[in-house]
Amino acid sequence: MAATDHLVIFDTTLRDGEQSPGATMNKAEKLRIAKALEKLRVDVIEAGFAIASQGDFEAIKGIAESVKDSTICSLARALDKDIDRAAEAVRPAERGRIHTFIATSPIHMQHKLQMQPEQVVEQAVKAVKRARNHVDDVEFSCEDAGRSELDFLCRIIEAAIDAGARTINIPDTVGYAIPEQFGETIRQLMKRIPNADKAIFSVHCHNDLGLAVANSVAAVTNGARQVECTINGLGERAGNASLEEIVMAVRTRQDLFNIDTRIDTQHIVPASRLVSTITGFPVQPNKAIVGANAFAHESGIHQDGVLKHRETYEIMRAQDVGWHTNSLVLGKHSGRNAFRTRLLELGIKFETETELNEAFTRFKALADLKHEIFDEDLQAIASDTRQKEEVGPYDLVCMQVCSETGVIPKAILTMTIEDKEHTVEAEGSGPVDATFKAIESLVDSGCNLQLYSVNAITSGTDAQGEVTVRLERGGRIVNGVGADTDIIIASAKAYIEALNLITRGAVRQHPQSADV
């Protein structure tokens, strides 16, 4: 495959995806996702925003030290302190990239930056040159390019390429673009900028109008050779372009695209499930490629057609994106070493033997309840296992719930608060409502419940239920996730985890202008 035929996949799940309200991940979780992305053969992993917090910096550095087969990138505003911090974070990587940006639309330059266009060009050039002093691989983004003036884009991009940028990103930051118009913008930029041949043109599309993938594909057909995307389309507001949809659109329609990616598509579904488990954002059943119904056929006509010839109603093979590839991996008779080995194969490594032992105990308990243990179950166990210092002040000890026709549901719950046990009883409109009211009668958190979601981790009536609870307090939003074969216990775990996250305070703050 010629170099010009390669579409670079730039995954920003760990940066832009994490900016989804409540999707904050810790270092260990980000590393697990990064290893999954490496297995997926993603070209560039944007591991975070180094200046945002010490935790973000350490996560990027840890990923740079561990991931060898992907370029590791950190975002940085066009500021010296951002660029230097990003450079320090990606320094251990075999291939490091600094992604620096500045706003270029009239509304952003006037109201956010309060700078004249000439000043914006000057700062962009300065930032690219400073980044090039640290790394050879520099990407420059024109924030809000979708609402920027074409002449100004040509001017600043030409200057950025002259300064040393080797990738130029055109973000539709607010999801404003329409495919035909956005594709034409890319074509015009590559045609009008004299040194356009010295850089790869990239796009980063948001999904506010549901057009992120369509806009990205339109850009590719007009010359873009990098697409910035996320697993499951995760991202702030309505999300980003979905990696799985971009990759499979290009792969499936080779009659229209003279390009391809290096993505190992059989790892798409496992990566999707991992991101969903860690972030607590379930994948909708009708989501393309990775949704539970993506390859399901209920209509009798469709079923008959598929049985006679698969391609009558299927344009992709389910196996090619990772469906039906997760067979039984462990059972109740499996030993600790087999358990550890399978976790390592899934990119899961515990920092201490104590954590591993706790996870193994959870695995054995689950194996007594479920005959078949799947990879998704192991991922849920790993996500549910926390170091003691990370747990927070609240923990569930035991609970009893009574739900009977014609009787008001009641929950009796014992939990620890700062290592002291408290028992409480509460009634509610249902068993989950009673459980949450019991918890709140003890903690009086002042939180607002914004989301309660239940998702089966695997198939079967004995599957673990994964519950996501989203709480808001004082403008801060967190997601708590709990898993158990008993959905009420999973609900209590999720609610308590969300309370612990709220109590620990903001672990990560993005500068406001980081909405690329």
UniProtKB/TrEMBL annotation:
It is an enzyme of class 2 (transferase). It catalyses: 3-methyl-2-oxobutanoate + acetyl-CoA + H2O = (2S)-2-isopropylmalate + CoA + H(+). Mn(2+) binds at residues 16, 204, 206, 240. Its cofactor is Mn(2+). One of its GO terms (biological process) is L-leucine biosynthetic process. Residues 395-516 are annotated as: Regulatory domain. Pathway: Amino-acid biosynthesis; L-leucine biosynthesis; L-leucine from 3-methyl-2-oxobutanoate: step 1/4. One of its GO terms (cellular component) is cytosol. SMART domains: LeuA_dimer. Residues 7-269 form the Pyruvate carboxyltransferase domain. InterPro entries: 2-IPM_HCS-like, 2-isopropylmalate_synth_dimer, AIPM/Hcit_synth_CS, Aldolase_TIM, LeuA/HCS_post-cat, LeuA_allosteric_dom_sf, LeuA_bact_synth, PYR_CT. GO terms for molecular function: 2-isopropylmalate synthase activity; acetyl-CoA C-acetyltransferase activity; manganese ion binding. Its EC number is 2.3.3.13. PROSITE patterns: AIPM_HOMOCIT_SYNTH_1, AIPM_HOMOCIT_SYNTH_2, PYR_CT. Keywords: Amino-acid biosynthesis, Branched-chain amino acid biosynthesis, Cytoplasm, Leucine biosynthesis, Manganese, Metal-binding, Transferase. Catalyzes the condensation of the acetyl group of acetyl-CoA with 3-methyl-2-oxobutanoate (2-ketoisovalerate) to form 3-carboxy-3-hydroxy-4-methylpentanoate (2-isopropylmalate). Belongs to the alpha-IPM synthase/homocitrate synthase family. LeuA type 1 subfamily. Homodimer. This is 2-isopropylmalate synthase. It comes from Marinobacter persicus. The gene is leuA.
